[in-house]
Amino acid sequence: MAGKKAQKPLSFEEGVKRLKEITSVLEAGTLPLNEGIALYKEGAALSAACRAQLEKAENEVKLYAEGMKTVAFDARERDPADED
Questions:
Q1: Neighbours of 36 (CB within 10 A)
Q2: How far is residue 62's CA from residue 10's CA, in Å, rounded to a whole number?
């Protein structure tokens, strides 16, 4: 049975590139209405996916930065020179 093959999610960079393509086509205004609506829906879904990827990356960076502050603070707290 032949069916649609599941597509792998686009990377953030691929998503942004596709969004730019969609924007250019929609701004040109040369598509029939039903095709324009379909393209708009694709763009909206891509925008949401890219936003989610960006928020995830931002949270990872924040957690990493907070962890680095904790490590730096702990290292100062346990200075062996102060234990004598």
A1: 14
A2: 24
Name the phi and psi angles at 2, rounded to 5: -90, 130
- Assigned token pair, 62: 């924040």
Give yes or no for a contact between 23 and 43, defined as CB atoms under 8 angstroms apart. Answer: yes
pTM over 0.85: no
When the pLDDT of each residue in the chain is averaged and rounded to a whole number, the result is 84
Q: Using pLDDT thresholds of 50, 70 and 90, give the confidence band for residue 61.
A: very high
3-class secondary structure for the chain?
CCCCCCCCCCCHHHHHHHHHHHHHHHHHCCCCHHHHHHHHHHHHHHHHHHHHHHHHHHHHHHHHHHHHHHHHHHHHHCCHHHHC
What's the whole-number mean pLDDT along residues 61-84? 68
